[in-house]
Amino acid sequence: MRTLYLFCAAAPPIYHVAGAIEAAQARGWDVCLGLTSTAATWLHDNLSGLETLTGHPVRSAYRMPGDENVWPKADAICFAPITANSLNAWALGLTPSWPVGVVVEGIGKRIPMVALPCVNEALAAHPQVDRSVGVLRAAGVTVLYGEGGWVPNPSGQGRPAEYPWHLALDVADRTV
Ligand SMILES: Cc1cc2nc3c(=O)[nH]c(=O)nc-3n(C[C@H](O)[C@H](O)[C@H](O)COP(=O)(O)O)c2cc1C
Questions:
Q1: Which atom of ligand 1 is nearest to the CA of 10?
Q2: Binding-site residues, ligand 1, Cβ < 6 A
Q3: What pTM, to 2 d.p., does this model score?
Q4: CA triplet 4, 44, 105: central angle to 5 degrees?
Q5: Are 36 and 3 in contact (CB under 8 A)?
Q6: Start-end of H helices in 76-175
Q7: Cα 34 to middle of ligand 1, angstroms
Q8: What CATH number labels 2-175?
Q9: What is the 68 CA–ligand 1 centroid distance (Å)?
């Protein structure tokens, strides 16, 4: 079975991640869920249910040196939703959270990766966001941003229940 690492940063669509996991499983993926530390705090009360759903530990922290990797090897990684914070960190090669560290290394390991941002217009107006999208695309990451992907919403008008996870899963399906 193909293994998908589904990584989520702290944006409101994460409260619907169970549906995205089920959708990926229905497409034939073995899903491993990784969360930034802030996202793990938001989902604190749901973590054991999500572990049952995926059949794998939910990971959000760096392991200790010498500890074993508890997940199967990734065939693809979807970072969805990715915040402006995690997107910019990834593009700059910074590793403030465990999932971002994995995708920073994932470029060098040539793991197929897709990012679906979740940013409002105010965050998107920061010049680093466009720069980060460009850097990551040039490095081979599929960033679903702009027409056909995530289009920044006016502040306060996000619709987390309508977050288009399927666009990221479509790319993962095509790459593997
Ligand atoms: C209610 C709420 C909603 C937020 N929505 C977003 C969002 O849609 N996109 C975003 O980039 N940041 C959003 N943020 C800010 C991020 O959670 C914050 O930048 C955080 O540090 C991101 O950390 P992470 O990238 O490690 O998950 C939101 C924060 C709160 C409290």
A1: 27
A2: 9-12, 36, 38-39, 83-86, 97, 118-119, 123, 158
A3: 0.98
A4: 35
A5: no
A6: 84-92, 98-108, 121-124, 127-138, 165-175
A7: 16
A8: 3.40.50.1950
A9: 30
User: Which of 82, 85, 153 best tests ligand 1's pocket when mutated (most atoms within 8 Å of CB)?
Assistant: 85
pLDDT tens, 77-129? 999 999 999 999 999 999 999 999 999 999 999 999 999 999 999 999 999 99
Distance from C-alpha of 61 to C-alpha of 97, rounded to nearest angstrom: 7
Cβ contact 61:35 at 8 Å: no
> Which atom of ligand 1 lies closest to the CA of 158?
8
Domain ranges of the chain: 2-175
User: What are the tokens at 48?
Assistant: 């054991």
Burial class (CB in 10 A: 0-12, 13-18, 19+), 48: exposed
